[in-house]
Amino acid sequence: MILFVVATFFLVPLIAGATVRVLRPDARWLHLLLSASGAFLLGVVFVHMLPELYEEEGASLGLWILGGFLLQVMLESLSKGIEHGHIHPVSGVVVPVLPVLGLCIHSFVEGIPFADPQVAGNLPFLAGVVLHKVPMAIALATLLMRSGTGVRQSWTLLVLFAMAAPLGILVGDLVGKGLGMSFLHNMLGMAIGMLLHIGATIIFESSPGHRMDRARFMAVLLGAAVAAMSTPHH
């Protein structure tokens, strides 16, 4: 199962990034996908992941979730908010290295807990993270095009981004063997903190003028409803 997750995390960003040069997806479609994926992620986290993690690790997990939330705040100073659909070309910079670095660190940390077979086999959580990577890759590819980055350099940066999560899984597997499952659980808490920040930002701040129209509201309801139906209840 972990090999399937590694392949998925590597291929999905590349495929999504390639669509930008082939299909030129409409910005409104991207925003609707962001809204649905953000709501789905939040639903899976609140209904399924957090209750189980707190049951296993106790109150100390809250520090890791808070740490992940704050880490994402810092990473967005590098990525300029690409994680939630903001695309701001860096003036005078042909190759936007810092935004790519921010995205790679985010994906690396996000990938570490998937070294745990139980997390890798959690299909709703896996689907939420993968869905969240699609608009990220599209936004990154769009940023590279608008910044005037060459085709070869663009693909190199997209491949680096696609490799970040699989590399996180590899590191998680190596370190987890020495430190035990608590390490992977804590890293899952950190990843969840990052996803909580991104999901909330997508839903509440990424609308034009901070107003949610009917289509985006329906996308949020759809994402939350699918999350509620797809997660097991104990």
Notable characteristics:
single chain; globular; mainly alpha; 234 residues
Number of helices: 9
Secondary-structure element order, N to C: HHHHHHHHH
Fraction of residues in helix = over 70%
Report the sheet-strand fraction: under 5%
Written description of the protein model:
By secondary structure, the chain is an all-alpha fold. The chain has one domain. 79% of the residues lie in helices and 0% in strands. The protein contains nine helices and no strands. Helix 2 runs parallel beside helix 9 (214-230) and helix 3 packs antiparallel against helix 4. The two termini are 24 Å apart. The relative contact order is 0.23.
Topology, element by element:
Blueprint: H1 2-22, H2 27-57, H3 61-79, H4 97-111, H5 117-120, H6 123-146, H7 151-179, H8 181-205, H9 214-230
Brief write-up:
By secondary structure, this protein is mainly alpha-helical. The model has no long low-confidence stretch (mean pLDDT 83). The radius of gyration is 17 Å and the shape is globular.
